[in-house]
C-alpha cells in the first residue's frame, strides 16, 4: 500500500466537481453523472493535486463502482487498491448486497478484488438508467459483480430439500 505521508484519501466535496471532471477526462473516464454522485466519490490527493479517484453510484440495495482512475505516473503504488477498499467499505456500511462495474480493459485487475464477469444482459434493471449504461461506457465493456452479502459467499449451490 502507499506509504507517502503527503498522499491522503478523502471524500469528494462539491467544490471538487470541476477538478474531478477534468481528472476523469484526462484519464479517459466518463464524466456523465458525476455531479449527481459526487458525494460518493473518494479522492487520492497529493498536495492539492488529484492523483486518483473512484466513485460509487447507489441504486437501492446495489451500486455501481465507477470512474476508478489513477494518474499513469502514480500507478502500481497501491492507490487504486486503497480507493477500491474505501468504496467497498462504503458499500458494505450501507448494507448493499452487490457492487457492479463496467470495464473496457481492467477485468483481470478487478477479478483480483473478487469481481466476476457477467453477461451484460444480466445487469439489474436499476443500473440500466445509469450514465454508464446509457452510453458513457461502450457496449463492449465487461460487466462485473462483487457480492457483498455474506451468505452468498458461502453458498456452494442450491440448498437441498430436507
Describe this structure in words.
This protein is an alpha+beta fold and 162 residues long. It has six helices and seven strands, in the order E-H-H-E-E-E-H-E-H-E-H-E-H. The chain has helices at 17-26, 34-37, 79-93, 107-111, 132-136, 150-154, and strands at residues 7-11, 41-46, 49-59, 62-70, 98-103, 116-118, 142-147. It has a seven-stranded mixed sheet, sandwiched between helices. A hairpin with a 2-residue loop joins strand 2 and strand 3 (49-59).
Secondary-structure map:
Elements: E1 7-11, H1 17-26, H2 34-37, E2 41-46, E3 49-59, E4 62-70, H3 79-93, E5 98-103, H4 107-111, E6 116-118, H5 132-136, E7 142-147, H6 150-154
Rg, Cα atoms, Å? 16 Å
Structural class: alpha+beta
Number of strands: 7
Instruction: Give the integer mean of the pLDDT values.
Output: 87
Percent of residues in β-strands: 25-35%
The helix fraction, in percent, is 25-40%
Give the biggest sheet.
Answer: 7 strands, mixed
- Terminal Cα span: 47 Å
User: Strand order of the main beta sheet, please?
Assistant: 1-2-3-4-5-7-6
Give start-end ranges of low-pLDDT stretches.
Answer: 152-162
Instruction: Tell me, briefly, the overall form.
Output: globular
Order of helices and strands: EHHEEEHEHEHEH
Q: Please give the count of helices.
A: 6
